[in-house]
Amino acid sequence: MPGRPLLAILSLILALIAGLAAADPQDGPHAEVRISITDTDVRFNVAMNLNYVDAVMPTTREFPDAVDPAEEAAIRERIEQFFLDENEVTIDGVEVRGIIEEYELIRLDRENLKLFPKTGLRALTRFNIVVSYPFKSAPEMLTMEWSAYPEDTMSTEQPGPDGNLPKMIILALLKAEGIVEQIIFSESDPVVEWRPSHATIDDRLEAVPEPIDFATPGIPLISVALLLGWVVFSLALVKKRGIRIVVILGIPLMIMAYVARTGAILPFGEPEVDDDALLSVFKPLHTNVYRAFDYSAESDIYDALSRSVAGDMLEELYTSIQRGLVQAEQGGAVGRITKVVIDESKVLDVDADDPSFLVEAHWIVEGTVYHWGHSHPRETVYHANYTIAEDEGKWRIVGSEVLSSKHLNPDPVDLPAGSTF
Question: Would the pTM of this model clear 0.90, i.e. be above it?
Fold first, then answer.
């Protein structure tokens, strides 16, 4: 079916987002951090479970596994202190004090309590915080510091020589300039620096070579006729008029034959095609399809895709993306494609009359879903054929057929501490 590999890209994102029941709060400390740089502020949207709060900002409570209504004010005060006094955001060299815009304590349904044998209710008690760091003009340099990294009790690594488990890392998502990317806070590197790129969509996409005419071997009939005519006349005139007349007639006829060399071609054989040149067209187109998913706004995704995909495939893919974005927003999880590697590719066929070509490709896609401060990887191997054709003066993908796909790790698992993609 045309377009299936491209829709497989979207399927990967939906698979990352699906199964949110398996991505519930974990039986240990977790903090989910999403940061956005808007026109007016830097905004931290953070969700933490009570395990994380107790590990880095403890309070005295009657029952450690629960927060009594009478204790809510004290724990809120401690959380606000953590964000306003212990974490730091600097905008263009000036430290900016945050503003708590939203605070919510959520007690999740106890029916899942059996899933958390180690920490019980503390895994089901969640705090949602929104902190704004305002600015008057768009920043040219921003630094963000995250200060607290408790032991990662969910780590599969062995304790170190000191008997302690590895410290947590914070895999945060940063949305800026319409792009969503992963950033990492860790105890060894707690400060993340950001500068605007001022890049357009075209700047972010790989350059694709311009279409060229496929050169098919052929005989230039007019040029051959002129040269044959010169030979015939030369044989007839050389005895009567001498070699001088042959030269006089030959010079303009040779010039005319050279000018007419591209007209009235009698083709024969196969087109002369440089496979490497065609693959240098396919590879950036393939990469740019995936890069379109770095954007967060539907219009930007469409604009980025339209530079690489044409025809019915573009509309079908865009419609599916809209549904996927809505599902991601409702589910609270965010799926990201983190790495794409073309393992092998080759040109199978070329159509010189209607400039297009067919490529067979094998590639690997790595993706991650971020939810409740942890991440689930998904790695998939694809084998597909792509049709690339000239569309409005540019090369674009116009058809595709998936031949096989295989999930290398179909079941979501937590990344070990320190893992990155």
Answer: no
